[in-house]
Fold 3-hydroxyisobutyrate dehydrogenase.
Amino acid sequence: MKVGFIGLGNMGLPMALNLHKAGFETYGKNRSEGKEKKFAEQGGNIGLSISELAAQMDVVITCLPMPADVEGVYTGADGLLASAKKGLILIDCSTVSPGLNQQLFAQAEQAGVSFLDAPVSGGTTGAEAGTLSIMVGGKEEVFNKVKPVLEAMGKNITFVGPSGSGSAAKLINQLMVGIHTQAVSEAYALSKSFGLDSDMLFNILTNSFAQSRIMDRHYPDFIAKESYEPGFALKLLTKDMNLVAGMAEECKVNLTAGSSVRELLNRAVADGYGDLDMSGAYKYQLANDEKQK
Amino acid sequence: MKVGFIGLGNMGLPMALNLHKAGFETYGKNRSEGKEKKFAEQGGNIGLSISELAAQMDVVITCLPMPADVEGVYTGADGLLASAKKGLILIDCSTVSPGLNQQLFAQAEQAGVSFLDAPVSGGTTGAEAGTLSIMVGGKEEVFNKVKPVLEAMGKNITFVGPSGSGSAAKLINQLMVGIHTQAVSEAYALSKSFGLDSDMLFNILTNSFAQSRIMDRHYPDFIAKESYEPGFALKLLTKDMNLVAGMAEECKVNLTAGSSVRELLNRAVADGYGDLDMSGAYKYQLANDEKQK
């Protein structure tokens, strides 16, 4: 099976490499050449344009940072849908709105091809280890056809339901990730200000009902080391929280904690914290508290 | 060692029984007689007043719902401090403010007795199994003397620091519990409204970065069963969030998510949801969303 992979970023590159290692004839494509070279150095194929990938591959996977990037790659004049060969299966692993998924799904149907939304969770560590959680929306028979492809990249692979369902599950996941991130910021800022030992606090909290996988990620590798190299950038989490807000509005669900965190993260990005790892929300918390003192 | 235990509630009764089972000569005391009878039926001693406990025991533990209850039992005319024999060690396992702990610590010193703040985490399950997390503030040599007593009730026992430190750690724990509780409410409300299968969503989230011990508690045993018998009552979590707000104000720390959740929980209690388990915040979420639809 020939697989194209568009978007060789922090997530996409290790995902594409895992496809290559699993024996799929994998073609990588990225806006910047540097990432393509890295992929080629480790045995991946490069050199095909987006239209060529659409015309020659059996499956094309996209893994892109922003919804606008996804729209461009799919619906642009030189995009995937314009050149897609009959029977092509398109899989979008980006985090976008269920609405955009449903729109691409409908356009793909019209073009005689298939589309799945298949956003992932698990970060760069999960992408490298091939242990991502993958949440899939679309037609189940299409999902079954590409299951081996997904299994090369992830471990907990769930067919969630109709088009957009994968993204709905992913956005709900991100809502919790965002809220839990801010919970960590507030908890450790309070601990620091009161004068507790943060390592001791972490040991207490991770063994109690305060435990979250986000705290287990953010504290030891980022906050304790005062090092906020992403990982997953704060600006991407902020983008996701904005997508959740749109989904919640359509679903008529009040996001109390979600809204307060979303507003804060948007301010953090505006204040220049967006390129930090998402755990850097703690650094923003400390800076804001400092102003108050 | 003779141990008095004041407050045989959902948490206190199993804790006192574990002391009895561990071989301590344990005397239970509760405002309502029914709980004392339960304790006596399982072999515990009863019948001593608060002053008698203060005069005759080596250690007296308190585990009470509200800060005002704690203040009354310690500083009232018939309270512990008025009748305390020299060398008595007082341990408060209630969740109160670090400020109240420090005040009782100072009064205890004046009366020639010792005081530790030792709030617990782990819920009724942890109390019954004797696996509570216990966070202790006060003098370390006093902590060392009563460590066997604490070990009969808990597993992760940490000496955190000077008087009030145990409560500071506990309140930070509760801040996260409160925020995580609301994260669960918003996530599952969104899932329900979008039309996802909640059991499937739980399986995805608990295996991804959305996981929290609070979600692992709230979903399977409460939300999935639509049963909100406490457990830990929403009004108590609300009380704790109010205590955290006071601590944060003193520490000059901005609680963004914490404040939004605190306000919501106070409204939930005012609207009659306080006696539900804390996971019942989800039921309140659904009721509020319904109004908007």
Notes: The longest helix of chain A spans residues 165-194.
